[in-house]
Structures are given as C-alpha cells and as structure tokens.
Amino acid sequence: LAAGDWRLAAGGWRLAAGGWRLAAGGWRLAAIKSRPHIQSYRAMNTTSIAIAGASGFIGQALCRALAPTHAIRALTRSPARAATPDPDPRIHWHHCDLFSENEIRAGLSGCDMAIYLVHSLAPSSRLTQAAARDLDLIMADNFARAAAAVGVRQILFISSLMPSGYRIAPLLWSRHELELALAAQGTPLTILRAALVVGPGGSAPKLLVDLVRRLPLLALPSKARSITRPIALADLARAVRLVVESPERYRGAFDLGGPDALSYTEMVRQSAEALRLKRLVLTLPGLPLWLVNLVARTVSGAPPALVGPIVASLPQDIAPHDNPLQTAILPDARTFREALSEALGPCGRRLGPSPRQIIGARERERLREASRVRSIQRIIQPPGQSAAWVAGNYFRWLGRCCWPLIGTQLDAAGRCEVWLLHSRLRLLSLERSPTECTPEREVYRIRGGLLCRARGGEKARFEFQSVLGGRYVMAAIHDYAPALPWPLYRWTQAVIHLRVMRRYQHLLARLAR
Length: 513
Description:
about 35% helix, eight-stranded mixed sheet, 25 strands
C-alpha cells in the first residue's frame, strides 16, 4: 500500500515507518536513520545514487531517467538550487561544496554509486585566480577521496572522446586528468567517453545553433572537416542506466557515439536545415582558430571560458572503439538531425532552455554579496617530498621573497604569522588544522589579521593538496574574505599574491628538475 506504511517489497511485507521488514525468511529490525528516502530504497534492494553536477543539462536528464527506479541524491554547489524543492519528490537536492572533502563525504554518505558530471565553466567565487583545469582537478581529487572514505562502490564519470594521436587539446587533456584523479583512490571507475552531446540546455549545441541562426555566412577552419560521432542526450542516459543496472559488468572506459559519423561542417549544414534557414558554409584551410574564437564569442555572446575550449578542442578524426555498451545502445540511437530537432524549443529556432538559467541571477548576486576569493596554483611536487614539506617550505620562503617589506614566523605548533616588517603589524594569522591534515593534504585556517575580514571568514583556509600520485601540489586559498575594499584588493593584494605564487611555482619547478 503506497499511501500507508506497509509496502510489498521483493523480500516480503515490511513496515517502512517502524523499521520492521520481512527479508530472507525472517523478521528483523532495519536501520532507518538519518536519510529515510535512501534507507527505504535500500530495503527494496535498489541502488542509491549521488549525482554531482546535477544542475547541468546532463545531470538534470539523468535525475529524471534514474528517479523512477533508484534513490537520487542530487548534489549541487548552488545553495539556491538546493533550497528549492524539486517537482519530482523522488529527487532530493543537497548542497555540497566540492572544494571541501568533508562536505562531499556528507553528500555521498549512504550512497552505493556516484556519478560525476562537474566542470568549472562558471566562477565559484567573486574573484577566481585559477585555471579551469586546476579547479576541476582539485574537485575530482576531493570527490575520489570522499567516495573511498564512505565506501561508495563505484564512480561513473562522463568524459570526452580522446584522439588516437599525440596532439591533445587542453580541454581533452583536462578530462584525462580527471579520469586519473577519480581512479587514484581505488574506487572502481566507469568512464563513458562521448563526443558532442545533443540535448536541451547543452552549451556546445547552443553555441552551434546560435552561430547558424545569426550568421548568413559561416567560415570554418580546416579542422572542422574532422569526423566525430555526436550522441543524443537520451541515448547517453540509456547507457548510464545500463551501467547502473550492471555496475560490475561495465567497468573501465567505454567510447560512445551516435549512428552518424559527421564532420563539424556537415553538422552546421544539418543544423541550418533543422532551423529551416539557408546558410552558406565554407571551409577555409588558412583560417586561424583565434579568429574563429573571437567571432564565435562576439556573435553568440557566450563567455570566453566556454567558447575558447570548445573551439580549441576541434578534434582529429575520432571514432568510438567497439565495446559492449556502444553495441547495446546503437540499434535504437537517434541521428544528429533527430536529436537536434528534439532539443529545439517550441519555436523551432532556439535550443531548449538550460535548467541552470533559473538560478543564475540569484547565484551571481550571492557571489557579489559574499565577496569571496578562490586562488589555486599548480606546483610541481619535488620527488620524495610531500604536501606538508611544500607548505612549510613555502611559508619560510615567503619571508625571504618579500623582504624587506614582509616577514613570516612559523612555529612548531603550526601557527604562521605574516608581519609587516619594521612596524610589527600582523597582516595574516594562519593556524594548522591537525584534524583535517593527512600525508597528502595540509590545511591552514586563516584566523585573522589586518588583511582578513573578521566576519564572513570562518571558512577561509589555505590548503596544500597533493594530487595525481604526488605529481603536483595544488596550493589553494578557499573562501577568503579580504578586509580591503574590493577595488583596492583586486589591484593590490590579489596581484601581489598571484606574482608571489608564480615565483614559487618556478622555484619548485627548478628544484624538481
């Protein structure tokens, strides 16, 4: 009886509210504790799944596809989205800062499987001094460590098709680093490598449609002749369902693609036909990619952080390798033209809206009010050293680097003071957090000082995190609230910090060599 407390599960009758159920021939007391929606699904032998990046267009589609048969916990970095109830009561939203391993552990606790869909195209703070690939690498490393700590049985990651040659675009190489980071902690990993995913709200399909809709003449570079296999969002969701239903069978990397082997030039032509527009499409061998990037940004209005990587990743010819998962979805897979027609809105001239647009304005306002800073630099870790060594070495080196203006003092208890010399004014005070430190991570909480805002800085911290098996150390400042007025901070303290970190990067690179 779905409306009452009694339900008929696969093992027999059980009382959901009280915890009693009949399983394997006898009565026993089930552990129904803090997350009733997860425990009730587990009692029926149903997989509980956490989806990181559930606010994106792929994440939204997977939530809808998996919710009828699985317990879904949708993880989002947006407090506004987490506070908004989902129309589907089977999907439970949970706010999770992926830069905090402790918050990820809380988000993954009690889940059997985790799906990772996070990409750093949108800023997570008012000022972000970091490359997108470094942001992605830290979040993936945190996610893998948290999944291993709470006992997640398997991670599923949707990546990009990789070219067979040695020339790999930065965007694709970043995806490869994420694959390595997610697999580094021992949790079994399934990687679905797909090319262009066509569906409503997709950034790359929206860019394609906007360019075709607004430009009567489209001049493409020679790389646009390369062949790829676009896949419909619904077909990608079918592949994910197969993995969720048989996780032990599908482990490792699987290439996915639709039935059409198309060049980007042909996709532009088919997009024009779907929009019922006449467009002249030319391929110019000498056309530079920077010019294509500039035109795409100007015409579409998309941010440079989105357009640049997409244009730079125009691939060589890429064809999915045969595998059981590709074979399973290919017979009923949609063509590119069918997938694009389904993704277009009611007017038939624009791609369907992205679910992220609902909370975009509120998120931007929240970032402006918080005035937080995130700064991440990738440092080569010298062989035989650790994150703790890099942290101590940095604080001692800082005093020498900034002499005769700034001095540092690091004591045996792990407290670090940054002073303005000749006046003894304390600029920053940091304290090592032993409970958060591990051999691969050193965490210093920023407790005060003239340069730190007293209110709003409770989460401010300086972390040194070893990633990719000790290949790099990520020196990261998270949730720092500066005391200086924002315009003054941007052009003084922020610039000085970035230059100091660049000097330290070069120093350890020379030491590593």
